[in-house]
Amino acid sequence: VVESWSFLDTVESNFRPLVVIELAKGTKEETIEWFTKRIVDKKANGGAQLLIKPLVMENGAENIYLVGASHLRLLLGAETVGLVKECSDNSMRTFTYSSRKTFKDFADDNHNFLTMAECQYIIKHELENLRAKTEKMIPGYPQAKLYPGKSIVRRLLTSGILVQIFPLHDREELKKLRHSWYGRVKVGYQPLDDIRCYFGETIALYFGFLEYFTFALIPMAVIGIPYYVFAWEDYDKYVMFATFNLLWSTVILEVWKRICAILTYCWGTLLMKRQFEEPRPGFHGVLGVNPVTGREEPVYSSLKRQLRIYLVSLPFVCLCLYFSLYVMMIYFDLEQWALDYHKENESNFSSLMLYVPSIIYAVVIEIMNRIYRYAAEFLTSWENHRLESSYQNHLILKVLVFNFLNCFASLFYIAFVLFDMKLLRQSLATLLITSQILNQFAESLLPYWLQKRYNRRMKKRMCSQKTDTDMSIAEQVNMEKEMGTYLGTFDDYLELFLQFGYVSLFSCVYPLAAVFAVLNNITEIYSDALKMCRVYKRPFAEPTANIGVWQLAFETMSVISVVTNCILIGMSPQVDALFPDSKMDLVLTVALVEHLILAIKFIMAFVIPDKPRDIQMKLAKLEFESLEALKQQVRAFQMQLHFLLIHH
Amino acid sequence: VVESWSFLDTVESNFRPLVVIELAKGTKEETIEWFTKRIVDKKANGGAQLLIKPLVMENGAENIYLVGASHLRLLLGAETVGLVKECSDNSMRTFTYSSRKTFKDFADDNHNFLTMAECQYIIKHELENLRAKTEKMIPGYPQAKLYPGKSIVRRLLTSGILVQIFPLHDREELKKLRHSWYGRVKVGYQPLDDIRCYFGETIALYFGFLEYFTFALIPMAVIGIPYYVFAWEDYDKYVMFATFNLLWSTVILEVWKRICAILTYCWGTLLMKRQFEEPRPGFHGVLGVNPVTGREEPVYSSLKRQLRIYLVSLPFVCLCLYFSLYVMMIYFDLEQWALDYHKENESNFSSLMLYVPSIIYAVVIEIMNRIYRYAAEFLTSWENHRLESSYQNHLILKVLVFNFLNCFASLFYIAFVLFDMKLLRQSLATLLITSQILNQFAESLLPYWLQKRYNRRMKKRMCSQKTDTDMSIAEQVNMEKEMGTYLGTFDDYLELFLQFGYVSLFSCVYPLAAVFAVLNNITEIYSDALKMCRVYKRPFAEPTANIGVWQLAFETMSVISVVTNCILIGMSPQVDALFPDSKMDLVLTVALVEHLILAIKFIMAFVIPDKPRDIQMKLAKLEFESLEALKQQVRAFQMQLHFLLIHH
């Protein structure tokens, strides 16, 4: 059954193309031969034992290859990557080939036991783990050095020989998913399990969080509406609203952890063991011995990296922050000018003009955020972090600090330096709404429109009148390889994070923010879904057990918002009027309330368990079983040993 | 080699008694026979395969048994409990019998490879894991029910047949340890590794923490002395001292985590896998099926437990808190009375009388703390927690809340209601010093004196003039079994926790507190050492990787102390004088500084890594190795499988 295929073996009927490899034009023949040989070679010979077949295009060869694998190979790969699947008794277990019969829906002829996303993830993992043996360089490219244990695919990528690797869409499945996701007008949940099967856990978890967050904002929005409709300005109502908001935000973040645990338990990623982290592709250094693995590989001195971080990156970030504040001051000059103009002219036009500075500023903020994003990526990559996780942490920290200041500095300034609540409300509304519109446009609608135009041109060029579903593989690959690459959930979470800031930081001044956030998120679900299904190449699935550092970011934001809201309430004239004699009593009361709310928040976060009881029980059961199994092994071994010792 | 001994086998020359079992007087013969049979029985028959020998006393049999084990049995037991030992290449690895040759100092004839404390821990573990097979009850005691899988020793303990199990002292080793620990006057560190070898990791870690904490307090004490000597009262000096204190307390708690990681890495407990937790001995319920293990065992409804906690324990704790506050008010009445008396009489005696209420109150606080401790233990045990960890958490929470309020409520009242800094200083000093003296006396000196008197009487009764070291085993057992039982490190940590509160909560008012704390801790090390070596039975070693919930408790205290110190500084007349016009600016400035310090604290706690870099590297190396080993296994298995599939 497990015969290795040659890459010329293109006539095999049940070859299912899963992943596309695009090599650079003019790649040398010997390189292609060596690379494909390594891919199809037996595991025992250090190959990946996958199937590969060149794509024959009408307009001549373009160095595009389709990669697949036999059913058995995929099952063995599932064991290697440590997939967790559901058993017949409804418990989740790490899949092993020897225990395959105990898994739900497993049958030797059921090729749907692994989802397509899982198959593609396995193939990606196997390709990335294709390592150099004795090769000193990539054949045909003496400048592309290799050393034993170096990932071949990563070296090919960094030296530009390999243009891209991406998984193929399944047009049938995608059509079904599109229909159930956003194809029909309906009230209901997203098909998260289908999304997970098609796009993997990281993306499904983002959509799960987006949906959850939208639902969680609804109570805030509902309570916020009457404040706007009846123009309530009583201090007690505001205090109630703000207190509710502050405690509510803690509750929703804690409850999310529980929901996340339920989702990822069912998806198997909660139980999945972490793989050992390899150096990221861009990492470079001089050849040395890695103290952890004992392997010879590039090492880069930690001191040099620290110097780059503290002597270059940190000053640069500070400079950017200063620049952002400088732009903010220009905005306030503009604001002043618009106000003066309105006072002089007092026309409809001039009152419209009042909003113009805020709108311009919102656009400038968005542009600055995007430019800074590139700079931060460049700098962090220049810092030469060895691990992807360390790179991500430094990037996220840089981006979060700047975006936080860039978006909220003007609001803080208006609130706590100018003490102008009317301007704060107006500015908050303009910034929030403008940034939402810009984001929706820049993220989804614009790429969608460009993609559509490009597709139309492509089709015209190919002179084919076929519908999407009966395109040939060649046409499909040709179309998909030109699509943009989805760069991960970072930007999507960042957008939600800033939105959470707009909603919670000044919630007691502008209760309507939650309403806008809810409306935005509902359209966001649809536009993000559109973006995933129509605009970008299919991304590789990434198993993940939680939303990672974003949980911490949202929690920090909710702590900061306690402070801002307490100060805002303390500054309101209604509360002021309650303490006519002593401003000091006012401040003391506000400080006391703030500390109380913070204490309640921390106690609540501590008391609410991170995992629901039944998930805890299931995890305990699994742990018990694995310990029992270990004990059995030790006992069996000991008995064997005793037997040997006694009888010999 | 591995021949099971009968319990009558008392003449074997190299039997080393490790653990003592004392059965109740008049225990039925059939019970003794059954129990000893189970202890010596082969593992394969469900026994513990240990050695046991009755202790023959001069004054007739007293149902005391000595338990030991062969060297091989202990090595196999070390594998079962998952001991981590140092290898020849200086890395730490989980001990397995098959890889025994790779471990440092291992030799088949080296019986000191396992420390005596480790041997005793293994024997305790094996005894506790002696489980009922088909027995429905303890033979001879029909009311002592058993069910398959129930720990026999726990049932024997709860039904009173087994009086106690304790490990024997090693008088030679103990003498050496005493000498190097507190036997000679010297300046230097404690012999932590020796303490760990003799008493186990939990106790060694406590002494490590005590020593570390004492050293960490020295900078505070040194800076505090000139404030007292020169009677500095400038606000800037106080602000500096308080700020230093607040940041310093964060640093020392973070650095402790690193030192703790270094210690426990060297001791092997950092890497030790957690064992599956069995129900605690006192747990009872109706027979049902445990959803986690699937075994039939007593279960107790979680709802009932919640009801007991919220309807009985919580109101009781609140009542105790109320009572504590009531006693506090009486103390203030006394204080007022003493003040009036002093004003009337103005004598030396009357000025001494001023301290009397504080001293009485300090004594009352200590008494209340101790009574409450018993009540809390009773209540928590009545709540019927299934796991020891859950029991401990509920007990610690109850005790911490009450002790915190009981000790500090009066100080908070004086500081923030009476605004009397002079009284605060006086009260703080009296409470701190009195409680330290009381604790040293009640914990160590009194028991030591009682023990000594008892020992003298015992020796007289036995009419023997021998010194400690050449006592017979029988005499030694007879003496040790009457010694008190050390109840764990809870009280010791609690004392340090309260001391930390006295030092940090009001540090800017009474900088001398740190000096007293340092002096107390130096004597505390000696008196605690005395207590461990002389007063109590040797405790069983408990492997542990950190100080657990106390880390959180200390961190919480350091956050609370930021708030109190900022308020105290804000209230001082010197700072007051800086803001002559507006009290509001003063309060705002104080609040701002407080938030800044809190933010710095959290950032510092986040930035300082919990484990030093080299420990991180070593852990990563181990993880890498185990993943590699797993991969090798999977690969070998896959190749085998491929081979089979191809050739058959």
Question: What is the fold's blueprint, element by element?
Answer:
Two copies of one chain form a homodimer.
Chain A: E1 19-23, H1 29-40, E2 51-54, E3 64-68, H2 71-81, E4 84-86, E5 92-94, H3 116-128, E6 137-138, E7 141-145, H4 152-158, E8 162-167, H5 171-183, H6 192-199, H7 201-229, H8 235-267, E9 286-289, E10 296-299, H9 302-345, H10 348-353, H11 356-382, H12 388-418, H13 421-462, H14 473-480, H15 490-505, H16 513-535, H17 549-571, H18 573-578, H19 583-607, H20 613-647
Antiparallel strand pairs in A: 1-3, 1-8, 2-3, 4-5, 6-7, 9-10
Helix pairs in contact in A: 2-3, 5-16, 6-7, 7-8, 7-16, 8-17, 8-19, 9-11, 9-12, 11-12, 11-13, 12-13, 12-15, 13-16, 15-17, 17-19
Q: Count every beta strand of chain A, where a strand is a DSSP E run of 2 or more residues.
A: 10
Overall pLDDT confidence of chain A: 85
Helicity of chain A, as a percent range? 55-70%
Described by its quaternary structure, the protein is homodimer
